Each structure stands twice: as C-alpha cells, then as structure tokens.
Amino acid sequence: MAEQKISNDLIASENDRLLAAHESDYEALGAHVARRSIDIGAVTKEVARFFVAVPSWGVGTGGTRFARFPGNGEPRGIFDKLDDCAVVQQLTRATPTVSLHIPWDKADPAELKAHADALGLGFDAMNSNTFSDAPGQTNSYKYGSLSHVDAATRAQAVEHNIECIEIGKAIGSKALTVWIGDGSNFPGQTNFAQSFERYLAAMQDVYKALPDDWRIFSEHKMYEPAFYSTVVQDWGTNYLIAQTLGPKAFCLVDLGHHAPNTNIEMIVSRLIQFKKLGGFHFNDSKYGDDDLDAGSIDPYRLFLVFNELVDADHRGVTDFHPAHMIDQSHNVTDPIESLISSANEIRRAYAQALLVDREALAGYQDDNDALMASDTLKRAYRTDVEPILAEARLLAGGAIDPIAAYRHSGYRQFVSDKRPASTAGSGGIV
Ligand code: LRH
Ligand code: MN
Ligand code: MN
C-alpha cells in the first residue's frame, strides 16, 4: 500500500459531501450522451486509463528571467518534489509517473526508486540538461552543446545524455528526452548546415547507448534561448532527426514551442502518419514558450490535438504509444493546484475528443459540408464532461473535487512548517 500524503479519511469525507450531486450529474450526462448513442461508462473507462506524467520541475514555483516569487513550503529537493507529485496523483489518479530532469534531480538512483516506490509512483522520460552549466563542469555550454564547434564539449554533452540513460535504467524509465538550447543570436554566428551535422553525429552517439526497449525523443523549439537561429527549431528538422537516427527515435511536441497561430494539431497528424510522434509536453501559451497551465488559454486547441490522437486510434493506427507529459512553469499559483488542474484539463480534452461522432464527421467531410463538420467537433467540445472526469477519479480512489480536497487537507501548511522558506530568485526557469 503506497504511503498516502493526504489522509484517505479526508478524501472520503470530501467525496461524501459531493457524492449525491455528482451521481445526479453523472446520470444526467449519461442520459444526454446516450441520445447520441454513446455509452458513458465506456468513455469513463477510457478516460480512467489515460495518464499524464508530472514534471519534477513543475512542483516548485517557477520564475521568469526577471524574478521568481516562491510560495510557502517549496520542495527542498527531489525527494520533497516526489512527495508533492504523489499528492497530485493521490487526488487526480491521472498522474502516476514523474519525469525527472538531470542534473536538477540527481540523487542516488536506488534512493530515488525506493522513495518513488513507497509513494506508488513510477518514472516517465528522463530529461537531459545541456542548456545550462552544472557547477564544476569542464566545458561550458555558452556556445552550444551537442552541436558545439568544440569536439570535447560535444563529447561532454553526449556523456551527460548517456548518464541520464544510466540513471533512467536504474529507476525504470524507458525514454530520454533531449532538448538543446543550441543556436545563434546573430546572422553569420554559426553555420546552419555544419551545426546540424555536428548535432546529428552527437545524437547518433547517444542513440547507440539506448537500450533496445528505450525510445529517444528530440524536442524542437522555435527560439529561446537563441534568438536568431535554433538548431532544432521546428517539426521538419525534428522529423529529419528521428528519421536519421533510427526506429527508436521520435519527435516530441511541446505545445509552447511554435510560432503563435501554428496549426499544432496538423503537425501532430503528420507525425502520426509518418510514425514519428513520440510524445507531448503539455502546457498553454499566448505569446511564446509561456509554460502556462494546460487548457488555460486555448482549450479548444488542446481538444483539437486530442481529436487527432483519437482519430488515429479510430483509424486503427498501430504501434502508437505517445508519451504524455506536462511541462509548465507555475509562477503565480500553488504548483500542486496548477498540476491538478492541468491533469484534469488534459483528461477533459481527451474525454471531449472521445465524444466526437466520427462516422458523422467523415460523412460531412465527404459531402464537403464544412459547417456541419465543424459543428460535429464543436458539439463534442461543448459537452460538459466534468462528471466523467470526476467519476474516473472517484472510481480510482481520487477526489471528486481535487482542488477543494487539496485546500481542505492543509498539505501546503503542513509542508511549510517542515520546509524552510525558499529565497526569492532573480530569475531562471526552475
Ligand atoms: C525548453 C523545455 C524543455 C526543457 C524544459 C525545462 O523550453 O520545454 O522541455 O527540458 O523546458
Ligand atoms: Mn518542454
Ligand atoms: Mn519549453
């Protein structure tokens, strides 16, 4: 039995308070979707089987490059972070795994595994960091890492990625996500072709160290920290990487890593079609890589992404297991609340996508009936699926209203009493 950070009695009494209203809402929604020939129980089951990994770096208060305003009870290190991740999982039952970032989360792998096991948590993809310098490291990444002009710096970056694989092997991870900040700030500063050649050669060295049952995800991002050119800047380059490396290499789509108005759902569709979609970093954004909470700015876009995933399933696409991970920075909220809410928003988008009448949609597409095709998507999107989400949580031992349960639990106060106040930082992403 996993160690419970929130008392089960608290969750039970919270659920008791809300149960009658929830049951009535679930029944009403069941009758509503039954008129569309949808079995609410089947949808609930699907939703309950959908999980998304929490980023270890998401449970601490984030910051901008201007400032960081920490909250109370900030996690002191990876073990506190795992405790906080367990709270998100306990209440949502949607986040059984954590994605680690090395060296931020570096610790004895046996201790990491034991702590996670005790909490009933597992590990999703490992994330390497060659976009900042670790204390004491020999070569700096100021001018790049896997694509650096200097062979020794590239070798150091390769070694770091291999070390991430080694740690991952010891804790039960099965994937490595590689995002580099390499690029340039001035036209002429770097040679586009040669940088990419060096990057591919270095990634091939990392790829060689990948166990047979592992996948490697390359993550593209249009800009930042480099502001003129970025080596892995878009999904086209990313697709070339995955193709060049081999069958264990896939593309990771971070929703915040595109130009505003980019049709991300279409990128998702293309990568599925050509068998190279590896997974997601979910978040939301308005201007750039804002790392806002999933579904907080454009929930319809999130729905359209899930519509592509469900469509692929419906079309019988095989060998398709995208990794679902959150990648957010929580600057003004309690990070645990943001993660609870984001996990629910992600499941909401999935549930709505499951409600799309795919036969009707295909018919409207064949008839070139643009209005009704669009309306078919909207009809699913407009459905308030909250009772389905709540039922999935309830059946798995979670909370009908996880944010309310979290607030009533006093967890933040409890950890604030134990964890010393964290000092405000001058910036940075963690
Ligand atoms: C880069 C990124 C990448 C990093 C994370 C901290 O913007 O999305 O995934 O690992 O942020
Ligand atoms: Mn990311
Ligand atoms: Mn990002």
From TrEMBL:
SUPFAM superfamilies: Xylose isomerase-like (SSF51658). Residues 97-291 form the Xylose isomerase-like TIM barrel domain. The keyword Isomerase applies. It comes from the Bacteria. GO terms for molecular function: isomerase activity; metal ion binding. Pfam families: AP_endonuc_2. InterPro entries: L-rhamnose_isomerase, L_rhamnose_iso, Xyl_isomerase-like_sf, Xyl_isomerase-like_TIM-brl. Keywords: Isomerase, Manganese, Metal-binding. NCBIfam families: L_rham_iso_rhiz (TIGR02629). This is L-rhamnose catabolism isomerase. It comes from Phyllobacterium pellucidum. The lineage of its organism: Bacteria, Pseudomonadati, Pseudomonadota, Alphaproteobacteria, Hyphomicrobiales. The gene is rhaI.
